Amino acid sequence: MAALIPLLGIISNAELISTNKYHKIAFGFFGNESIKSYIIVLSIVTLLFYFFRGVIGFYYNKFISKFSFSIYLHFQKMLSRKFLETTYLDYLGKDIGDYLKLMTKELVNITTIYSSFVLIVSEIIIFLMIFTLLLYFDVRTTLSVTAVLSFIGVVNLLYVSKKIRIQGDVRELAESQIYINLKEIFSSFKLLKFSKSTPFFLNRLDSNTSKFIDANVQNQTISNTPRIMLETSAFMLVIIIAVLIWSRGSAGEAIASLSLFLFALFRLLPSINRIISSINIINYSMPSLDIISAELSRKEYNYNNQNILFLDSIELRNISFSYGHVNVINRVNIIIKKGEKVVITGRSGSGKTTIVDLISGLLTPSEGDIFVDGISISNPAAKLWQQKIGYLPQNPYICNDTVEENIFFGMPPDYEKLINVLNKTQMLDIFTNDNLGFKVILGDGGARLSGGQKQRIALARLLYAETEVIIFDEPIASLDKNTSNEIIELLFDAESNKTIIAIDHSGYIKNYCDREIVVENGTISAFNLR
């Protein structure tokens, strides 16, 4: 707006060319012979100024947006890597709702913090430039205006910012609970259909949502306080400036100085408001920064990347393991030869899954060590060893994606191998007879598949990976007898040359195994089956 003053001034009063030294210099610089030509040139210069100002503003906003979202991408990569490097035991102690919130909402808040900080810096630069100009023209009036504006800033820092930070903590807690409540409702959808507990879950969600909304309402209400104070103070500042200027000098000089300060105030007040608003936004979002900082500062593990060929055996030597103070495995010794088929049995809660998790390197023993061909895999996990293991759980994970992507699972695509594994698992005809073929979407969690089909897709994925060791964690527990028999026969026929470690309650899998390991009260007994 201030850039229009020279043009408007010369249009309204042509005598400024001779009385104003800046117009006199510009008139001579452009070599104008008439006032009309000078006004035309000044108009073009003003238009070019606003044009380039708009272009710079466009690219500045683009830069800020790109910078903010690059921050989002940077932190997302760091958090994703940190999550995937989390030990299995730490993972078990986490709530998936917290992770989802961390990877989404908290990262958005982080970008808001950084973009607000950049805005503060840019507005401070503009403020200092205008402040320096005002000091040059009138020190006393400038310092008086600064005193009033400083008072508003101090009030914001001492009162408003503190209140907003409190509301930010309330918002963070309520939002965490909302994610947990939603996860519970989505995960128990089928159960809630047959339950009278639906109002309980909805009321709990409503309660946390109300707290979240209240925190946001409080934040917005408190955040508007500095703006209201600035708008109210603007009239007081105009009076102060007018009185201070009018008390000195001639009327003409007073009007010129007053106009300068009014235009400066017109630019400064929004700038100060943006600075204060950005500070408040940062305070409101600070809990997100605290959470992400805590997550990124977690201990990093130095993984054992020593090459493991697995030519001979897996040995558990004097292994003990405890969950907290509860001793689950007590001084266990097992040797599993390459190519051997072993079934692990025992009562529920006896420690079968814990032993398998120790063998796979997901858990680190409290005492003892685990060796593959004499190489320890317990410091705290062997990535290269885990890459040699294929895992088939009781409830396999199926992505909401195509058949082929569920089997490739991030591995390089090989359609000849894909056809081969689908044929082995007796699923090829189902998809080749479909119009979409391998592009059929299987639905969230394999919603479009039966229980047996899910296991076959998971088995096809396992066969596609071509790992040396196969771990089955009760793969037929939820299937009917006929389907169970088919799956087990497919498993052992397709992987007859692999080392297989299976957990089983049914008693059927041991018919295909060389040895049975019975787990009871944290100890084991081994029996040859062949």
Description of the structure:
The chain has 530 residues and is of the alpha/beta class. It folds into 3 domains: 1-85; 118-296, ABC transporter transmembrane region fold (Up-down Bundle); 313-528, Rossmann fold (3-Layer(aba) Sandwich), CATH 3.40.50.300. It has 18 helices and 10 strands. The strands form 2 sheets. It has a 6-stranded mixed sheet, with helices on both faces. Strands 2-1-4-5 form a 4-stranded antiparallel sheet, covered by helices on one side. Helix 10 runs antiparallel to helix 11. The longest helix has 50 residues, at 35-84. The model has no long low-confidence stretch (mean pLDDT 80).
Question: In brief, what are we looking at here?
Answer:
By secondary structure, this protein is α/β, with parallel strands linked by helices.
Short descriptors:
single chain; 530 residues; alpha/beta; ABC transporter transmembrane region fold; six-stranded mixed sheet; four-stranded antiparallel sheet; 10 strands; 62% helix
